[in-house]
Amino acid sequence: MEICLLGTGTAIPTQQHSPAGLVIKTGDQTLLFDIGPGTLGRLHLAKVAYTQLNHLLLTHLHPDHTLDLATLFLAFNYAPNAERTAPFQITGCGGLEDFLKRMFNLYPEVAPIPFELNLQIVYRNEFSVGDLQIKSAPTMHTPESVAYLVTDGKHSVVYSGDANPHGELAQLAEGVDLLISECSYPSGWETEDHLNADTVGQIAQQAGVKSLVLTHSYPPALAVDLVAQVRRHFTGNVQLAYDGMCISL
What dihedral do alpha carbons 12, 13, 16, 19 form, nearest 10°? Predict the structure, then answer.
């Protein structure tokens, strides 16, 4: 299993930390998780072409996690002599159907023309994509937001999307090889809809994950030694993510 982080920041522009996007590749499966602005232009970091994408999984519907979806559909519809004809699957949280209807009303040209669009709404669900087993659980960043656990039978990874301390991230990530978790703010920063260095470390320690990668960090978090702050609570391996970071399990 290969995990490539295409966007590891927020909507605030910072070097090496762009809005959310993550690719997981294993066998003949290539899954894209979230599709924030600029994600398509960074697919090359994972050595993936947009034409290879058949399945997008969304954690929630905020712009920094979804804006390049319109661009992807535009490419699918109008690439010269390469219009998409194969079905495309989107798995996402509640509100996805209404979100797409509003997007197609705003941009009629991105509504799927030559291909079939399939939708799957998840909250606490288990399903498979090829040989991959996937589980979703609420993160409470929004009432509908979810994190995803992906397992190939040998290795496991959880991608948090955005989360708060009252979600089910610790339970979902119990014993996984890798937790890729948002860490929006430094230690001591009060927040109701995100995680800071303290809560991320506590969740990872409670879950007993083997390795932790910190993503979705705002400038105040990037201005400190975020890894050191997390290590006050978590005894495992910790790394700060950057755009283009790839991890093999």
Answer: 50
